[in-house]
Amino acid sequence: MNRRATAPGGATPSASPGAPWAAEEPGAWLDPGRPVPDLVTDVPGPEGRRVLERDARVTSPSLPRAYELVPRRGFGSVVEDVDGNLFLDMNAGIAVASTGHAHPTVVAAVRRQAGELLHYSASDFYLPIYSELCDALAGTAPMSAPARVFLTNSGTEAVEGAVKLARAATGRQYVISFFGAFHGRTYGSVSLTASKARYHAGFGPLLPGVLHAPYGYCHRCPLNLSYPDCELATVDYLEQTLFRYEVDPGEVAAVIVEPILGEGGYVVPPPGWLAKLKATCQRHGILLIADEVQSGAGRTGRMWAIEHTGVEPDILCSAKGIASGLPLGAFIARDELMTWRPGAHGSTYGGSPLPCAAGLATLEVLRGERLLDNAREQGEFLIGGLRQLRARYPWLIEDVRGVGLMLALELPSGHLAEELQLGAFRRGLLVLEAGESAVRLSPPLVIDREQCQTALRLLAESLDEVATSFEAEVR
Ligand code: PLP
To answer: Is the CB of 155 within 6 Å of ligand 1?
Structure first.
């Protein structure tokens, strides 16, 4: 007689005992003696090409797709594709795998949680892990007053929620964001996004009440000025242009800003820029929303990039790195702002048990393994190496910038940035274009010195190739 417990519906709890994926330790597949990167086929190889063929038939052609990487598994800063090629990952997905791929602590937390409770909605019920994570995230808030947290499934939902909260809390309608900014692709967020016109093309009318202003992008100043003589004139644009000709500041609910532009090219605004923006907001009772979806979760060597500036946001949006790859976003606001009525905002899945478990484990790993210190140390080493590359190719690398492990090279054109990205891929190095003509480095925060050295060596080789092939185009 079968004595095993039978779950309602007849399924036996141990119907698939010893499933291989469940037993295997994260990273057990990775031979520690194998160099990284190590390409054993063309990229993509035969298996990869099969995936690409199916993909081309059945997926939405709207997906932007950077290059033909077909990842199968990962560990730390290493990714293996379906053909067994090993890549050094300086992308972390798109700045998501903050603790590295398949960090054992994160994997263990997710496995444990999966065996206990896959779903109960925190919208209608009191999921303990939800408030545990809110408590932990509120503890990281760069705000002097107590904070509350709302959990979402993604960055764009965090932005949507933050804008709704700002409108509800102020009773005002308008929202200002910046040229070059990326805040997501759902209707509210995409209306704020202004990093590429194609994100809007064909989708209008967009959310009304959104205005844009120039960002503090010194390398290609939108006002053709130079820092510090400019006296941060891009911020003055709000008072002198928007508030004078377009909108009464008393009707502006919020200014939303990335403390460092993400998709817009890893642009770091000049010293004092965010402080001046905050002062402008304060003068008019406007809330400052920091979108830290890409810059947060330790990437810059502080938990939140805005901490480098001493500016306190009123609301902060997060996603990507906070759960090491599981779908989780959050917006954090001062307690006194989050006074909206029950039912004003909710979500079936936002803050589901698995992402919450991954989020708590991620915070534990960031602290326990001192990954913020590592982001600072490896970031300094990498930016030093990038500056040396710039000295070698001053005509090819226009700018090197970034903070911690949020770094970029700016090339003269998008075409050259793409060639550099592809040259790196052919060598087993994963980097990603950003903005009009930048290539970004956003590796997992567990990256080590040897991997950084390898990345610089492969970037140098890729630059050599671009320099040889395209010198006539640029000089
Ligand atoms: N905000 C910023 C700064 C981002 O970089 C992104 C995504 O790249 C988003 C919002 C949207 O996040 P998601 O793609 O998770 O919706």
So the answer is: yes
Cβ neighbours for 115, distance < 8 A, ≥ 6 positions apart: none
Tell whether ligand 1 has an atom less than 6 A from the beta carbon of residue 292. no
Q: Whose alpha carbon is nearest atom 13 of ligand 1? A: 155
Alpha-carbon gap, residue 229 to 223, rounded angstroms: 12
pLDDT tens digits, residue range 109-163? 999 999 999 999 999 999 999 999 999 999 999 999 999 999 999 999 999 999 9
Q: Could you tell me whether strands 147-152 and 71-75 are parallel, antiparallel, or unpaired per DSSP bridges?
A: unpaired
* Sole residue written with tokens 């844009």: 212
State CA 407 to chain mean position distance.
13
Determine if ligand 1 sits within 6 Å of the CB of residue 263: yes
Backbone angles phi, psi at 35, to 5 degrees: -70, 155
Q: What Cα–Cα distance (Å) separates residue 170 from each residue in 10, 166, 211, 274, 341?
A: 53, 6, 17, 21, 14
Torsion from C-alpha of 350, 352, 358, 362, nearest 10 degrees: 40
Q: Residue 36 above 90 pLDDT?
A: yes
Please state, in angstroms and rounded to a whole number, the distance separating the CA atoms of residues 425 and 432.
10
- Burial code (b: 16+ CB inside 10 Å, e: under 16) for 336-373 equals ebbeeeeeebebebbbbbbbbbbbbbbbbbbeebebbe
Looking at the whole model, is its pTM more than 0.85?
yes
> Hunting for tokens 């000295």 — which residue is that?
391
Compute the distance between CA of residue 193 and CA of residue 177 in angstroms, rounded to an integer.
8
